[in-house]
Amino acid sequence: MRLSNYYLPTLKEAPAEAEIISHQLMLRAGLIKQVSSGIYTWLPLGLTVYKKIEAIVREEMNNIGALEIDMPSAQPAELWQDSGRWQDYGPELLRFKDRHQRDFCIGPTHEEIVTDLLKGEVQSYKQLPITVYQIQKKFRDEIRPRFGVMRGREFLMKDAYSFHADSASLATTYQAMYQAYQQIFTRMGLDFCAVEADSGSIGGSRSHEFHVLADSGEDVIMFSDGSDFASNIESTQSLPVTTLTEPTEAMRLVDTPDTKTIAALVEKYQLPIEKTIKTLVVKAATDCDSDLIALLVRGDHELNAIKAEKHPWVASPLQMASEDDIRQAIGAGPGSLGPVNLPIPFIADETVAAMSDFGAGANIEAKHYFGINWGRDVALGEVMDIRNAKVGDSSPDGSGHLRMARGIEVGHIFQLGKKYSEAMQMTVLDEHGKAVTPYMGCYGVGVTRLVAAAIEQHHDDKGIIWPPAIAPFSLVIAPINYGKSAAVTQFADDLYQTLRDKGIPVVLDDRGKRPGVMFSELELIGIPHRVVIGDKTLADNEVEYQGRTDESSQRIATDTVLEFLLTTLNKTA
Amino acid sequence: MRLSNYYLPTLKEAPAEAEIISHQLMLRAGLIKQVSSGIYTWLPLGLTVYKKIEAIVREEMNNIGALEIDMPSAQPAELWQDSGRWQDYGPELLRFKDRHQRDFCIGPTHEEIVTDLLKGEVQSYKQLPITVYQIQKKFRDEIRPRFGVMRGREFLMKDAYSFHADSASLATTYQAMYQAYQQIFTRMGLDFCAVEADSGSIGGSRSHEFHVLADSGEDVIMFSDGSDFASNIESTQSLPVTTLTEPTEAMRLVDTPDTKTIAALVEKYQLPIEKTIKTLVVKAATDCDSDLIALLVRGDHELNAIKAEKHPWVASPLQMASEDDIRQAIGAGPGSLGPVNLPIPFIADETVAAMSDFGAGANIEAKHYFGINWGRDVALGEVMDIRNAKVGDSSPDGSGHLRMARGIEVGHIFQLGKKYSEAMQMTVLDEHGKAVTPYMGCYGVGVTRLVAAAIEQHHDDKGIIWPPAIAPFSLVIAPINYGKSAAVTQFADDLYQTLRDKGIPVVLDDRGKRPGVMFSELELIGIPHRVVIGDKTLADNEVEYQGRTDESSQRIATDTVLEFLLTTLNKTA
User: Which residue range or ranges hold the Aminoacyl-transfer RNA synthetases class-II family profile domain (chains A, B) (predicted)?
Assistant: First the structure.
């Protein structure tokens, strides 16, 4: 490609609305242009990158025997009503009526369509397992699209679905998919991490997320310093960090004016934070005989909403109670709450259940009890892991301690079990001729999001540094005074043509820009290898080569430059 | 690919709703499955075919320097309001409101988005011309989706857009696109025809359609037997087929009871059909001072609605007047209408204007005038070409006579001119520093429709006959008693592996089906080349080869079969 024939609208400054570096660089390097909130046009340079990622994903899916299909974006409501998701899905599901007033949605995911597709067609266990996938634009009407294509409304996904006669077959395909995902992200040159995850509202028994590690990641990953354990903090099991001991103090009621926070309690009364309890009040589920429920976590711990929602008494999604509701039910406000004489049911975190001689609100305005002990002073009821794991906690697998990293979720695999096949009444005959409900798995990769994630991980203050496998071009020829110096022009054209003929993805910057401007732009767009051709070095029969991350350039003799480049490109391919 | 690992749900009988052969064969061969009216899932075999077509289209676009981009499906209403199409477009434009109640549509075309994209970014004529394209799913909410993917609601399109500083540059790119389209359809192995077309509601000055010739085609193409002239009947110019002569008869009022049709008039009164006139009444445009307008065509000619709509007096789209409206305005009903004493304005077709001594309704119930002559009996007013061209007419280019063929429109190229750039206020600076409005072109290919069109043209009573360039697999190995005969299994596996290693798109039918069933299925899905391996021929060290259209098979020695196949495949590639 000659840049004079290319469309590369670069920007000197990133628009103010771009908060994170990948969004800034994607706009500045002319990869995308916004059309509407969370909706982008992919320009030639950006499209080339996502097509490269798409090709890697497709190859790895084909390698494990997944079959590519293409399901429609417009999905009839009836199928979503069958699965129950027409009701369950929020406003991020884009619904519309066609000209005949029939209900449809633009599918953000295809469990219903794929189950309906194979239902009736696949009749025997002998036709299983089967894995199908597609690489397709999705629409999710995010309430607050942000970070460019990282959390956009239209995005490209690879979604795969597998069907199995038994759970062992599902586990085998799940494992193959896990390895294919590792292969995809490894080939892309990304530093990533597979973590155990909560399977969330999609249902099912087991799930892993794949995260590209980056400080700007929205997800928090807890991993062990002593084993392979890694998990999203949303679902990282928290072990109790204390062991229950015998009471040593008597319980006493203490006046605690102006002490609404744990920090104040610790500071004013010299209570160790490990001896304090936070009492959080949330709305109860409908089948609980109270309207409100209290959740108790240790003063230095954080509530984990996703864990708490799993308790049958807790309304899902978690909703904090209002101060008015709390006062009406308990007779005291937030900051004075605790388990002793609490008129509503409570759930204690496992660490809280192992505490002794601790302090908590007395459910009387501006009073706390100190020296509380379970059993003697207040009965312990429901106990459950409802807190976030913390750096330094013992790893749940028993090896080492937890550390923390931030990640960008780019892949997610699920063992769905029978949720959709059961709801949509899909059955196959097993080897005894009996109708059984197949097991399902589903497996997603965020193709366009990967472009942003790769940039978050691979950039410097000059711009993007593409990993070679997904670089839009491998090599740029940057002639100084192209079109003015006959020698430079000739040499650049010849080298360009030779490399093209060899099938190298090479680009020639024939726009005749000033060297400073040209170099800045080429660094911004992140081409891995650059050859500068100028009259000065040509006089010595040399050109200059510099890798995108090299600190300085090296001179290469013109008669060896072709061999040098082919060798260098081969090393990084 | 081993068919035992493939998903190929073939059907013995086509579902009743499939009216045309391509729809029947696509369902029977397991290429597609319907999800909703006009909405399909593409199964592995179908997807492979459309990906091959997509790859050919992409290559030819890249070859003429078009740059691939990816514009969003969800388009904000504001842009369509700017161009005026938010109002003009009918209910086939799928409109929706996002969660913030902002108006959007799912773009059936991208003139607005692409003009908005380049507006402001392209500032100088030096950056022009530029051609961008995308290959993308579109949604058009057809009132009556039919013929499978031929007229579906979701379909894959290649749409390209070009921008130019002057009309000469537009003409150059238009010509390059025309040639690229010829290249695409030629490479696909299709018998096609490029025809001049009406540019329709999209606007602009010049346009060509590309049709795959097939008897089931919805379009009628008129072409000359004496030149290269070809045109869609919608826009084929009709020359007058008579020359005005002096009156030889007096006009007379004739009682014509029960004579409501031209056929009856001809039969009962021995009037040659070339001496009769049809008077059709349609609604007038708002700036005409009548509510109704009469259109006159010769008795044996057909009205061309698209031509008539171009007259400023005629409402667009053309709407026939009701019988009540006609009786109220004229005092007589359809079947008794004519130009003499007609109280509403009329437009005469050019052939009508050249008639003499003709008959037409008298605008009195059950009466006609015979022997009418223009000028003497009634004044001739508006004259315009408003009829369909007819087989046998002189070709509009003056060489030869018109013949007719039916075609499936698979491509359409337009010189849009300034319609969108003007409406959306895009300007660039010309070489004198003056702001000018760029010229635009747009260019579409129906990728998924091409799959159906190829089948319409390439099938027999056994099934599909894929042209080699778009066949899902080039070659199938069909072993008899696979898995039972060790010799057959071994030979089939070895041949399959050898061909795969050489990169041949080969499929092995290892499902162990009975030969009759297997051969029928393989013929149905249309793989161009087949090798049958059986114990009988293996005993003679031979296998059987048969091309999909060969009348019989030929025996090939096992030690030369590889060379034979490579040579044969190479010939058709």
Answer: 33-467
Q: What are phi and psi of A119, to 5 degrees?
A: -60, 130
CATH number where A437 lies: 3.30.930.10
Higher pLDDT, A23 or B205: A23
Q: Tell me if B460 is assigned to some domain.
A: no
**CA dihedral sign, ordered B49, B52, B58, B60:** negative
Scan residues 75-134 of B and list those with Cβ closer than 8 Å to A: 75-76, 91-92, 94-96, 98-99, 102, 104, 106, 113, 116-117, 121, 130, 132
Shared domain for A18 and A156, answered yes or no, is yes
Q: Are B400 and B225 in contact (CB under 8 A)?
A: yes
For A306, the domain range is: 252-384
In a domain, A398, yes or no: no
Confidence of residue B287 (pLDDT cuts 50, 70, 90): confident
Please name the residue of chain A whose CA is at the shortest distance from the CA of residue B40.
Answer: A72
Closest C-alpha to A79, from A426, A437, A438 = A426
- Domains identified in chain B, total number: 3
- How many H-runs (helices) and E-runs (strands) does chain A carry? 16, 30
Chains A, B: CB contacts under 8 A, how many? 130
Q: Residue A553: which residues within 8 A CB-CB, separation 6 or more?
A: A532, A544, A545, A546
Q: Scanning every residue of chain A, which has its alpha carbon at the shortest distance from the alpha carbon of B114?
A: A41
Do A138 and A149 meet the contact criterion of CB atoms below 8 Å apart? no
Q: Are residues B288 and B336 in the same domain?
A: yes
C-alpha–C-alpha distance, residues B304 and A123, integer Å: 53
The pLDDT tens digits for B146-173 are 899 999 999 999 999 999 999 999 999 9
Average pLDDT, chain A: 94
On whether residue A486 sits in a domain, the answer given is yes
Structure tokens at B86: 């938010």
At residue A471, does pLDDT exceed 60? yes
Prediction ipTM score: 0.89
Predicted model pTM: 0.89
User: Sorting pLDDT into bands at 50, 70 and 90, what band is B572?
Assistant: low
Instruction: Give domain status of residue B502, yes or no.
Output: yes
Residue pLDDT, tens place only, B520-533: 999 999 999 999 99
The DSSP letter of residue B540 is: T
DSSP B358-424: EEEE-SSTTEEEEEE-BTTTB---EEE--B---TTSBPTTSSSBEEEEEEEEEEEEEEEETHHHHHT
